[in-house]
DNA sequence: CGTTCCCTTGATGGGCTTCAAGACTCGTGG
DNA sequence: CCACGAGTCTTGAAGCCCATCAAGGGAACG
């Protein structure tokens, strides 16, 4: 009933429209849900980090293409038994509802980012989000000088932010030039002052409760 | 336990952060959830139509400002009794989960719209969405020549689409000039060919099941 | 008949995309 | 060992789409 699956960076987990008879939880690594227009324009519509849930109970086929953006480890359950589990165990169903509502809130913040933020603010916002998610795993709140893992290509960042990869690259360079961030290789960012990064992100909310 | 509340177009239902001890279902009219950056930039992050659910069980205060975009009638339940209902009645809880998952899918389509579509495609997409929602209420699928109610100001449309109200106005004029739409007053649109409008919206999906 | 709200239209400029070329990194094979 | 190539990223130049600033039209209301 429960089993693990491993994917390398860049591999596709499922294609939109394909049959999908499992649900899963991310153990390690990162995955993106993406949607496309006919002419190929691509937008990421979900970013899955450790502890996130993948799949929809009661649905036969995948609504979105899921791609591993870094090496990825999934803990999978066959869908039918999982659906039974939901019916028999209201506590689990209730927990799933809560996770879904949290995800809905996160996606709504994402709408604000895509609709109203500048390229620079978008980049800063993404780094803030990743820093907060990383810190939340160890029940902490980011502050001062911190390091952020960035297991995304420039292209994946662009698809998340609704930009081109060139613009992402330019804005990363600009933030570096101005000392807001430092780069250790392409996929690791040092943030000298997390507070300053939050200022660059446009919104001043403190990130809410640790939950 | 159950009561009705009425709001006029433009009135605020709740302010973000305010205490909210009811949940509600939209009976008639339309409401928008909006989020703001400190400098005033506004993005709509939810659009509630008849049959949609408002509020989050288990949460004390509103996360977003809710505004009636047209005259609005809500069917409200006090939050505490409603939460008890969810615990005692798994069928209702399960239904709420399904509605939340549907909303999540809708918001993900919205991400694609904000991140990757042109102003013209955004306008067309909004009209397609409203036409489909309206048609779904009577279990039909829009096609051919149809009318679409547009109970939104140009500014509310702009906040939904991540544009300025001037751009919305210009693109509406352009679509009209080219015969894709006709206007009956400012808040009612005639679509000579729904299929043509879908082509203008950028994605060619058929709108999925009627559910 | 003036005020207010909403909408339309014009002119201008800027932020991001597009197109293009080159740099860096890493793994492979000569 | 080093040359080569593929994938990823950076940087430059040009142009377009949409935002911004500005003015005015139209309808509803007192």
From TrEMBL, chains A, B:
SMART domains: cNMP, HTH_CRP. Gene3D superfamilies: Jelly Rolls (2.60.120.10), Winged helix-like DNA-binding domain superfamily/Winged helix DNA-binding domain (1.10.10.10). Pfam families: cNMP_binding, HTH_Crp_2. The keyword Transcription regulation applies. GO terms for cellular component: cytosol. Residues 117-195 form the HTH crp-type domain. Residues 1-103 form the Cyclic nucleotide-binding domain. One of its GO terms (molecular function) is DNA-binding transcription factor activity. Coiled coil: none annotated. InterPro entries: cNMP-bd_dom, cNMP-bd_dom_sf, Env_Response_Regulators, HTH_CRP, RmlC-like_jellyroll, Tscrpt_reg_HTH_Crp-type_CS, WH-like_DNA-bd_sf, WH_DNA-bd_sf. Keywords: DNA-binding, Transcription, Transcription regulation. This is Transcriptional activator protein FnrL. It comes from Paracoccus kondratievae.
């Amino acid at each position: 009933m429960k089993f693990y699956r491993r994917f390398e960076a860049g591999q596709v987990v499922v294609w939109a429209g394909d049959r999908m008879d499992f649900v899963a939880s991310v153990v390690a690594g990162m995955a993106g849900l993406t949607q496309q227009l006919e002419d190929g324009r691509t937008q990421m519509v979900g970013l899955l980090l450790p502890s996130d849930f993948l799949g929809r109970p009661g649905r036969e086929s995948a609504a979105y293409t899921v791609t591993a953006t870094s090496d990825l480890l999934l803990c999978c359950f066959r869908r039918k038994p999982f659906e039974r589990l939901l019916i028999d165990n209201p506590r689990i169903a209730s927990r799933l509802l809560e996770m879904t509502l949290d995800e809905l809130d996160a996606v709504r913040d994402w709408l604000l980012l895509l609709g109203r933020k500048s390229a620079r603010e978008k980049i800063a916002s993404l780094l803030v989000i990743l820093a907060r998610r990383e810190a939340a795993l160890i029940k902490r709140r980011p502050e001062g000088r911190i390091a952020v893992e960035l297991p995304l290509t420039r292209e994946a960042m662009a698809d998340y932010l609704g930009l081109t990869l060139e613009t992402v690259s330019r804005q990363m360079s600009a933030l570096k030039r101005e000392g807001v961030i430092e780069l250790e290789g392409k996929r690791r960012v040092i943030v000298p002052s997390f507070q300053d990064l939050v200022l660059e992100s446009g919104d001043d909310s403190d990130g809410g409760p640790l939950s």
